[in-house]
């Protein structure tokens, strides 16, 4: 798939970027950039796409997205309704892997950090005490200047490198080279899928969105995403069901139909295939903490 190359701007006084975004909704385009991205979602929820991985995101999540790894944060539909009670807020750090010089990460003391940044090429989600510690340090960086800010970034990376409280997101086989010319096409596909996954989307329909023949679209989508469009839609529907099972009290049968499945048996089958649990077990385990 062809994401958009995003240009990250810097002032002459800064070698990397730290900012807090307060917006109606998050970064609603499939994009990538050479900078590594450290992201703390402070407010907001929705669906994230990192490489070939699809998951839900929510307030409190912290991610490290490697250089040139495509990603897309799409807030829930409610954030697009101009509601005064909803806002999306995040602290974002962007830095080039070599912004401190080509040799710094080659020092023997920094090799664990260099290895961890290699893992970040698949995208990383933090959890546990590591996530909470990184949140505090990211908050500190918003008001720091000069060397203090650089030292705090190094502290964050050192914490990550010696912790095991993280998981990779995308597969290691996900391609790392892209052509900007196809950006609009993949964004049209994603936007249409996200708007319509609760109903049947035919191959002819989505191929028309991409301005391709059905046969060409199938080859195009699978060669870029490492999955068929039908599998992509199943994952969207299952992750939406996960959110509904966590957030509400609707019976599982209603969650099934509201997530775009027409048969309860099909819903159970694919939910367990993707999450490893039945819908009822998933809800029960979440409530138990």
From TrEMBL:
Annotated coiled-coil segments of the chain: none
A UniProt-annotated Pfam family: HTH_18
Entries under PROSITE patterns matching the protein: HTH_ARAC_FAMILY_1 (PS00041), HTH_ARAC_FAMILY_2 (PS01124)
Keyword list, A-Z: DNA-binding, Transcription, Transcription regulation
Protein name: AraC family transcriptional regulator
Residue ranges of domain HTH araC/xylS-type in the record: 187-285
Signal peptide bounds: none
Superkingdom to which the source organism belongs: Bacteria
One GO molecular-function entry: DNA-binding transcription factor activity
